[in-house]
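Summary of Year 1 activities. Much of the first year was spent building the evaluation harness for sequence design. The harness presents a backbone, in tokenized form, and records the residue chosen at every position. We chose the following record to illustrate the format because it has been used consistently in internal testing since the harness was completed.
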């Protein structure tokens, strides 16, 4: 009992967690999934009307690379249905990104009943940081990593005439841009692991040298080009994110949260 509670003669307040049965959890999960699917479908319908403009932004890196090497600035397709299927995929991905704040909110609403009141204050930072980091990662891939890779490949094959299909180009574009977006979510993953006490900042610092090795191996796998410079371009933000994740783990780890509560109570 704290000194304030003892002086006032009151018992300290204890927060009781709401209880839900297994079927209640399934019903809640079904509701959140249905709401998310409806939102994504609506977002896809909206983005369908802008599909050509969206793809114009997507193909800008390859157009710039072809222009810089004085090649024909045009992509081709080999199947009559390929452009239509491509536009559907683009509209769905754009719709998912457009409605991602609402989808993340539905995810948070599903897990929030199992959290204490003071832990629920993380909802806004969680949503903002998740979307911001993914956007930064995608932007890094779109503006820096992907153009460098395209320039290397097209310049390396200068004696041949490229015939790049829209499907192959889009697959490579999504692999790099979405891959970098997911890689930039590293601090969010560490946040949850540290919040549950699985990951500690001391463990991350102690194994920093091994993390560097893993990051460069991962960069070598993700990098579409074999040169060291591009591999370092991919590895540099990963190293910065790892260092940021150490700070995140220190702030949210249970031992640090308990220390802050004890300091506030004293």
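For this record, the design step produced the sequence shown next.
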């Amino acid at each position: 009992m704290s000194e304030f509670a003892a002086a006032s003669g009151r018992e300290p307040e204890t927060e009781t967690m709401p209880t839900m049965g297994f079927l209640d959890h399934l019903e809640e999960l079904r509701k959140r999934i249905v709401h998310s699917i409806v939102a994504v479908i609506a977002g896809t319908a909206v983005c369908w009307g802008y599909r050509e403009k969206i793809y114009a932004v997507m193909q800008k890196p390859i157009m710039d690379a072809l222009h810089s090497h004085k090649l024909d600035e045009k992509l081709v397709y080999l199947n009559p249905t390929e452009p239509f299927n491509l536009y559907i995929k683009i509209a769905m991905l754009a719709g998912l990104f457009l409605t991602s704040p609402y989808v993340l909110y539905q995810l948070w609403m599903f897990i929030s009943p199992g959290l204490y009141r003071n832990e629920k204050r993380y909802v806004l930072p969680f949503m903002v940081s998740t979307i911001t980091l993914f956007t930064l990662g995608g932007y890094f891939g779109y503006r820096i990593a992907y153009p460098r890779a395209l320039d290397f490949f097209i310049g390396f094959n200068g004696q041949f005439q490229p015939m790049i299909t829209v499907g192959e180009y889009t697959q490579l574009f999504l692999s790099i841009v979405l891959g970098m977006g997911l890689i930039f979510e590293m601090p969010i993953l560490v946040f949850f692991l540290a919040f549950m006490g699985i990951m500690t900042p001391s463990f991350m610092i102690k194994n920093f040298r091994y993390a560097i090795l893993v990051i460069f191996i991962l960069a070598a796998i993700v990098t579409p080009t074999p040169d060291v410079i591009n591999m370092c371009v991919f590895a540099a933000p990963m190293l910065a994110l790892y260092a940021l994740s150490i700070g995140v783990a220190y702030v949210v780890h249970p031992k640090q949260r308990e220390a802050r509560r004890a300091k506030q109570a004293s």
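The radius of gyration is 24 Å. Quantitative recovery figures across the full test set are reported in Table 2.
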